[in-house]
Write a structure and sequence with these properties.
heterodimer, A: alpha/beta, TIM Barrel, 9-stranded mixed sheet, 11 helices, B: 292 residues, Udp-n-acetylmuramoylalanyl-d-glutamate--2,6- Diaminopimelate Ligase, Chain: A, domain 1, UDP N-Acetylglucosamine Acyltransferase, domain 1, 11-stranded mixed sheet, 9-stranded parallel sheet, 35% strand
């Protein structure tokens, strides 16, 4: 079956920045490649690999489990947090996008109202206290997000923390005008956190700095969930500069993800061993403050697995067995539709473990 | 109420927002002017320079090369409103303009906008998310619901036109002590007046949209969802049912009652109550067309 191509898409802002970098540094420079490889389509995306995933995990909810039906645009992998995807559209397409194979969809106003009511229904009222609004880029549609947030305040008072994931600060910061940032204002019952992703120091554009300052001034905590990407930031010097830069901008280091094994992204994936080596060097070399250290994590079929001693339990034919602290019983309690993926099993202590496709080099 | 926001957006991004496929070219939309409507027999004219640079939101049809972008959607006008609101419209900021006067005995809800030189008097309550625009005046007792719009220069709660002749033939003003109640989502147009009555309340129910230059006499009740267009006059104690439509310059005499969903045509003068829904025209207004 023909695999649909994830089209190349850049905002005009990014196109202008790329052109500027090309002129200033040349196309072979780490600066240009640090941005270009993230957004320009690469023939290596079309190289077939024997194993890959289409989604980073399956966490859709079971419609039959919700009385009166289930709203669209939800995922749930963790107990207290619900993932809401109001839109799967973005101003630019990251070539390693986790949701590149999802069907594009934008929730309507009435669907968003249903989501808010679902968050506050009897079954969820005492459990869910946090939502992650992601996509796509939710801040592309601030009016709908405002509507969702107001509805959450009205129908789901149990939701106290709202995380919004966006790459607009680096992809098109000018879209984050006063009007768009209004989503963070006048909602005293909600604590806002903004998750962004900055994978290379070249992305610290002046416009990015300016908008990050304005977001921070609104009392929003900003943190970075970055991805370790071969050819972009898989050098210790680049990572040190990146995490130093984030700290200077008051952006908290959160996860540094090992690139997810998705179709067409194998060329971005270092080996897990190399990732661990870099993470170890970054966090133990004394080059950056402990306040700026990220958590090296893999996004597996059963959710995130953060690396500690004993996390890697085995190896076979290009795959690594990762131990987690998740239990099957908890998973089913939070999401009865959840099925154990073929790659996962339950170990002797009742915890989930999963085979994870390794990268190369 | 919105200001125009500078924004550039691809037709394909609007298609994604509407969850519909884009036909034709992925044109760059730089202003609302570049979005046209085709709904039923109504077609808005393409902008200067022709259709090639524009996006058409249509209820049917197929895009052709060189004819710009086309998105087929249900209810194109409604979708256009959503697109404009999301991408091209910047709402008025919350807060009270320094030149406005808000009585310490008035209460304002959350996220209210009060424009320049507006006056909100004692005994007035304004609900959340309402917009009181420049030069609007609200005198109490008055309750404005949430999500209301009181446009520039509107006067809500002014004392009604009530006089009584004394023994010498002099006109004495009857104190107008009733309140004005404006329901959620109602809209009072620019330079319109909504008066208070002697004792009864003047009621503008939820989602009523009153156009500019309308007069609503004291003690009147305008039923939920009614549309009162420009130039209409409602004398005192009129009762409009729900979803009534008064077209421009219609006049409704005192104490007349109009049934739900009736339509009163342009310039009509309604002198007696209307008990059957239909379309009414003329002076005095008569039934022209029965409404199913």
């Amino acid at each position: 079956m023909a695999v649909p191509v994830f089209p190349q898409k850049l905002s005009r802002f990014l196109s202008a920045k790329l052109e500027d970098l090309r002129i200033r540094y040349t196309e072979d420079s780490p600066e240009y490649r640090g941005l270009a490889l993230q957004y320009l389509r690469d023939p290596r995306e079309d190289v077939a690999t024997p194993k890959y995933n289409v989604k980073h995990y399956e966490a859709g909810l079971d419609e039959s489990a919700a009385p009166g039906g289930l709203p669209a645009g939800l995922e749930r992998l963790y107990k207290r947090t619900l993932v809401i995807e109001p839109t799967l559209a973005c101003v630019a397409h990251c070539r390693f996008c986790l949701r590149q194979n999802y069907e594009k969809n934008t929730l309507t106003e009435s669907q968003l109202m249903d989501v808010a009511r679902y968050c506050g229904n009897e079954a969820n009222r005492d459990v869910i206290n946090e939502v992650l609004i992601t996509g796509g880029d939710p801040l592309m549609i601030p009016r709908r997000i405002e509507l969702l947030l107001r509805a959450l305040m009205k129908h789901a008072e149990n939701v106290r923390v709202v995380r919004i994931a966006t790459r607009l600060p680096t992809q098109d910061p000018l879209l984050l005008d006063d009007d768009a940032l209004g989503v963070f204002r006048d909602k005293p019952s909600l604590r806002f956190e903004l998750a962004t992703q900055i994978n290379h120091p070249v992305e610290f554009f002046p416009e990015t700095d300016e908008v990050l300052n304005r977001i921070l001034d609104l009392g929003v905590r900003v943190y970075a969930q970055n991805v370790l990407l071969k050819g972009i930031n898989d050098r210790i010097e680049t990572l040190v500069e990146l995490y130093d830069g984030l700290r200077r901008r008051a952006v908290e280091a959160h996860y540094l993800f090992h690139a997810v094994p998705l179709r067409g992204t194998h060329h971005f994936r270092t080996s897990l061993e190399r990732g661990l080596e870099l993470a170890c060097a970054l966090t133990n070399c004394g080059a950056i403050s402990g306040r700026a250290k990220p958590i090296f994590t893999a996004m597996t079929d059963i959710g995130k697995v953060t690396f500690y001693e004993g996390s890697v339990a085995g190896r076979r034919d290009g795959e690594v067995l990762l131990r987690s602290g998740y239990s099957m019983a908890d998973r089913l309690a939070w999401n009865p539709a959840w099925a154990l993926p073929e790659t996962a099993s339950v170990d002797g202590s009742g915890k989930l473990q999963v085979w994870y496709l390794d990268g190369e080099g | 109420m919105y200001h125009l926001k500078n924004r550039e957006i691809r037709a394909s991004e609007i298609a994604e927002y509407l969850n519909r496929p884009l036909q034709g070219e992925d044109v760059l939309i730089t202003s609302p002017n570049s979005i046209c409507l085709s709904e039923g027999t109504v077609r808005s004219a393409p902008p200067a320079g022709g259709a090639s640079g524009c996006l058409v939101l249509a209820d049917s049809g197929e895009g052709q090369e060189g004819s710009g972008a086309l998105i087929v959607v249900e209810r194109p006008r409604l979708q256009l409103a959503r697109v404009l609101m999301e991408f091209f419209a910047s709402p008025l900021p919350h807060g009270v303009d320094p030149s406005a006067h808000v009585s310490p005995r008035a209460t304002l809800g959350q996220r209210v906008h009060v424009g320049a030189n507006a006056v909100i008097g004692p005994g007035v309550s304004v609900g959340d998310d309402s917009i009181i625009m420049d030069n609007a005046i609200i005198h109490g007792p008055a309750t404005i619901g949430s999500g209301c719009v009181i446009k520039c220069g509107a006067i809500v709660g002014s004392e009604g036109y009530g006089f009584v002749t004394d023994e010498t033939g002099r006109l004495i003003h009857m104190p107008q002590l009733g309140a004005v109640l404006v329901g959620d989502g109602a809209w009072i147009g620019a330079n319109s007046t909504v008066e208070r009555a002697m004792s009864a309340d003047t009621v503008i129910e939820a989602e009523v949209k009153v156009d500019d230059l309308v007069h609503i006499g004291g003690g009147s009740v305008v039923g939920k969802g009614s549309l009162v267009t420009s130039g209409c006059i409602l004398e005192n104690s009129v009762r409009l049912g729900e979803r009534v439509r008064l077209l421009p310059n219609a006049v409704v005499r005192s104490s007349v009652v109009i049934v739900d969903e009736a339509i009163v045509g342009e310039g009509a003068v309604v002198t007696t109550s209307i008990a059957a829904k239909g379309v009414y025209y003329g002076v005095p207004a008569r039934l022209r067309q029965e409404k199913g």
